[in-house]
Amino acid sequence: MKQQSFIAKTPKHELEVEVLSKLVSRDVFDVKKEQFRKMCEDGCSNYGKKYSCPPFSPSFEKFQNSFENFLVVMYSINLNQLANFDYSDYQKLQIGNAVIKPRLEKYMRSLENKTNTQFFSTGACRLCKPCKGKLGEPCAKPNDKRYSLEASGVDCNKLAMDVFDRPLLWYKNKTAPEYTSVIAAIPVSETFSF
Ligand code: SF4
């Protein structure tokens, strides 16, 4: 496993982001597509309204069968870095996620040039606001749209533990977790170096 960090600069902050990455075999992904699809259907108002989400997203098993090796990358940000600012816990979480999500997506997209494959992102596709699915129109950027691991049925909690021994933490009882993380993956060749 590789462990690095960088400083993310925003208009108001300079925040350290931890980067964990590891090459893994396809067996490490635990896919529960139907279970997650049902959870989305029951619990998300966006179900059927975003083209990157269930029921439109394919099962990760399709890619598991096509590729032997994957690079898994986690960006993590400790929210205690915002302790001296006058933010609510929810705002801290929002700031943390706003820092790491687009940066991880940009990094994964840059890897596509090296791998000739497509990455699996974190959360729904954010290329259009709103997603054209909400307007009943065709996807505006079908070649750039990417599916998330979770929308493809991957158990990301288990993945984070199995690969990095690092649990994903959640906002609970109006309290921000110690850190927030995002996780993504991309198929790579056996000889891929990063
Ligand atoms: S590219 Fe735009 S329309 Fe297509 S899935 Fe992404 S957000 Fe939706």
Structural commentary:
By secondary structure, this protein is an alpha+beta fold. The chain has one domain. Helix content is 27%, strand content 21%. A 4-stranded antiparallel sheet has the order 1-2-3-4, sandwiched between helices. Strand 1 (2-9) and strand 2 (14-25) form a beta hairpin. It starts with a strand and ends in a 6-residue tail after the last strand. It binds iron/sulfur cluster (SF4). Iron/sulfur cluster (SF4) binds next to loops.
Topology:
Blueprint (H helix, E strand, L loop, with lengths): L1 E8 L4 E12 L7 H11 L17 H6 L2 E10 L10 H27 L40 H9 L14 E10 L6
Antiparallel strand pairs: 1-2, 2-3, 3-4
This protein binds iron/sulfur cluster (SF4).
Associated small molecules:
iron/sulfur cluster
According to DSSP, the number of beta strands is 4
Percent of residues in helices comes to 25-40%
Distance between the termini: 11 Å
Q: Short description, anyone?
A:
The chain is built from 4 helices and 4 strands. With 194 residues, the protein is an alpha+beta fold.
Identify the notable features of this structure and list them briefly.
alpha+beta, 194 residues, four-stranded antiparallel sheet, binds iron/sulfur cluster
